[in-house]
Amino acid sequence: MSNAIIPLLLDSLASAALIFFAAVGLTLVFSVLRVLNVAHGTLYSIGGYVAASACLFIASRQLNPYLSFVALLFSAVFVAATLGPLIERSLIRWTYGKSEAVQILITFGLFLILEDLQRLIFGVQSFYEDAPMRLLGTTSIGGVVYLNYQILLIGLALLVVIGLRLLINHTRLGRLITAVVADREMAQSIGIDTNRIFILAFSLGVFLAALGGALATPTSGVAPGLGADIMVLAFAVAAIGGLGQIEGAAVASVIVGLARVLAIYWVPALDAVAPYAAMLVVLLIRPYGLFGSVTARRI
Amino acid sequence: MKLTNGLSALALVGLAASAPVAAQEKPASLGFGIFTFTSGPAAAYGMPGKNAADLMIEEINAKGGIEGVPVSATYVDEAQGAQGVIAEYRRLAGDAKNQVMIAALSSANCLALAPIAEQLEVPTVGWNCDTHQLLMDGKSKYVFRPNGNTVPEFIAYAIYLLERKPDVKTIAIINPDYAFGHDAAKIFTAALKALKPDVQVVAELFPKLGSPNYQTEISRLTTARPDVVFSNLWGADLENFVRQAAPRGLFTSSQVILALGETVLQRVPLPDGVIVGVLGDGWWMSPDAKANAETAKFAESYKARFGEYPVFPSIKMANTLIYVKAAYKAAMQKNGGKWPTRAELADAMKGSKVATLTGTTQTRADNDGLVDQIVGVTMKAPAQPFPVIGEMVRYKGDSLMPQAGQDPLAWISMLKPEFAKSLPKPGSYK
To answer: Residue A295 has what pLDDT?
Structure first.
């Protein structure tokens, strides 16, 4: 039992890191734009496809394999810079102020379009390129060999939490975002360009989703259908943490990761349902999630 | 008015009388509904099947088709789920041009389609239906399986393992969470316990089909420290598992058995010594396959077209088409050269023995197939840039199958160590 504690904790954190990247962008977009983007998971898988393609290109040209780390980051930047503003301006902005049902229908339509586009561009076969994972080697902890890449992911997830908090609290952009989140109309009336904030916030959400996909690719590859699977998990995390809460997403990712890992270690039959069972328990106790709160509805 | 009605009635009678004759005239073309995964993680296994079908149908048509009738295929993607697959099956079966269905890849879809095949009376050949549950009632008239089933497939691994590692004490299992994975776990464990009762199962994991990440499962398997890890993961799941497990040392800390390991030999650098097989005899490099000029030609054409050699799902599909073609020939020989009805075609499949690219397939009275089982271990080969299968054994198909109608798990539980000793040894198939 004691021998299993270190692997169990490490596995939970490694699992949580991957889930966190998918969930934090979703929750950020919701907090600023008040839109639940059902297509968020597809942006995650597009990030994965672009990163895998870039890494495969580097391998095929026999370039320095360490460039694949740069490729992972720039793939996410590329997806965010191209798709973020495009989707926000062409589609998402029409959903502002509309009912949740309309928002979900529109973003679900976007999900279907992006899934088909993805199939057209990348085909239906799985993509793999594990150079970043191989380059970092392994470490033995508690008698279990771990990929150093898994440990890197835990560190990166922590960096993203800290980075986002610094961005929100200590930069001009962060203060503008906070103002828009607090009161959109008031922010507009004092001269804040809310459209620009929406584009930036949505693109940041796309970046985080694409980064999650890109970082997951070296260990797990990318295949059609990945977006839908990760989306469901991201929703569970966002619900547990409280929609719109960055730290909430981080804590919820650890809870979901831990629930899944505990199930795999001791009750493997409950592996698939464990994250949703955790969600159910949290929502029964705190209906708005761990960090969420009831907000007064302005009329 | 009466005369008109009378003429109409006569015409109807005439039409009805001529219908059976018309059904037995050679059609302008022959359609097959072919069911496989062409998208999603399972496409890594399903697409080689489709590729093989494309190639074989082209070859059949280049030689004049089946008994002079050109063949065309309509592919159905099984990734759409059982409801969609059933709807597509019904739609295709409604078209008389489609005389045969080659369905399906997924055991779950095979089980869902079997009663519909019987209801619609459409010969349905399971090109990759492995679950032993498919033909257990022995009453099928229209559903056939020219491959082995999960019983001989996974008993073969238990016997091979005990020959290679007789001191095995503990095993762990990681299989996909559906009928194929659970059946395989039951059969493999039952066979091991029958042949070596002191074997213990220390971990049994069933991750969701299509899971991309196995890191936690790998940690769990490592901490359980089993002598043997058995898996029948397949498609992209298997590739992901191998890519994640190899650098974490699972292949060195335990003897790993990958029941469908041959499918990833050309894609993933599997270390030496992993027990792998082909769920049947469908390896393009087996001694029997190498001795067959037709197989060598097929393998080279496949490599030229698709960039890699055919994996065993490709061979299974090619063999299934050979089986269907042989059934047409047999049915027409039996009915005096007329084009066969669906019923005549099904009748011709029953009890048939057909030479395939890699051996023979014999259809029993219960429509189940008898196919040899090849098992071996991975090893490097100087002539190939990827690992190949060495230390092979080829078990006779009928030696690992219970009699028709016999409960497979009850039959397995009665196996004795002497039974395993009477079978060929690893390395004997050269």
So the answer is: 59
The pLDDT, as a whole number, for residue A229 is 84
CA B31 to each of CA B55, B74, B95, B102, B167: distance values in angstroms, whole numbers, following the listed order: 16, 7, 9, 11, 53
Please check whether residue B179 lies inside any domain of the structure. Answer: yes
Nearest CA in chain B to A128: B240
Using a CB-CB cut-off of 8 Å, the residues of chain A touching B210 are 223, 225, 229
**A106 alpha-carbon distance from chain centroid:** 20
Residues B155 and B264 in one domain: yes
**pLDDT surpasses 80 at B147:** yes
Angle between helices A100-122 and A40-60 (to 10 degrees): 20
Q: What is the pLDDT of residues A123-155, one digit of tens each?
A: 877 788 888 999 999 999 988 999 999 999 999
Label residue B69 left, alpha or beta by phi (over 0 means left) and psi (-120 to 50 means alpha).
Answer: beta
Is A214 inside any structural domain? yes
Whether residues A15 and B216 touch (CB distance < 8 A) is answered with yes
Question: Is a pLDDT exceeding 90 seen at residue B279?
Answer: yes
Quick check: B43 and A150 CB within 8 A? no
**H-type alpha helices, A34-99:** 40-60, 67-90
CATH number of the domain bearing residue B120: 3.40.50.2300
Question: B92 is written with which tokens?
Answer: 């295709």
Q: Which of A223, A264, A272 sits opposite B236 (nearest CB)?
A: A223
Please state the rounded mean pLDDT for residues A23-41: 92
Question: Smallest CA–CA separation between B249 and chain A, in Å?
Answer: 7
Beta-carbon separation of B43 and A146 below 8 A: no
Question: B246 and B111: one domain?
Answer: no
In the block, residue with structure tokens 């087996």: B286
Q: How far is A97 from chain B (nearest CA, A)?
A: 35
Least confident among B50-54, B172-176, B205-209: B205-209
B132 plus B186 within the same structural domain: no
* Together in a domain, B262 and B312: no
Which of the two residues, B50 and A34, has the higher pLDDT score?
A: B50
Count how many domains chain B has. 2
The answer to whether residues B69 and B115 belong to one domain is: yes
Q: Which of B39, B205, B239 is facing A128, going by the closest CB pair?
A: B239
Confidence check: pLDDT of B236 > 50? yes
pLDDT bucket at B14, cuts 50 / 70 / 90: very low
Domain around B92: 27-148+290-363
* Residue A279 domain flag: no
Q: Is residue B13 in some structural domain?
A: no
From B313, B340, B363, the end of a domain falls on B363
In this structure, are B385 and B258 located in the same domain? yes
Q: What digits encode the pLDDT tens for the residues B130-141?
A: 888 899 888 899
**What distance in Å separates the CA atoms of residue B104 and residue B35, rounded to the nearest whole number?**
5
Q: Based on the fold, state whether residues B241 and B165 are members of the same structural domain.
A: yes
pLDDT of residue B4: 45
pLDDT tens, position by position, B77-100: 998 889 999 999 999 999 999 999
Contact in structure between B84 and B56 (CB atoms under 8 Å) = no
Distance of CA A50 to the CA centre of its chain: 16
Q: Which residue of A has its CA nearest to B267?
A: A128
- Domain extent, residue A202, equals 24-223
Do residues B221 and B264 share a domain? yes
Position B48 in a domain: yes
Q: Do B41 and A264 touch (CB under 8 A)?
A: no
Query: Residues A138, A140, A146, A147: what is their CA dihedral angle, to the nearest 10 degrees?
Result: -10
Chain B CB contacts of A18 below 8 Å? 213
- Over 90: is that where the pLDDT of A184 sits? no
Q: Which of A145, A220, A268 sits opposite B240 (nearest CB)?
A: A220
B221 within some domain: yes
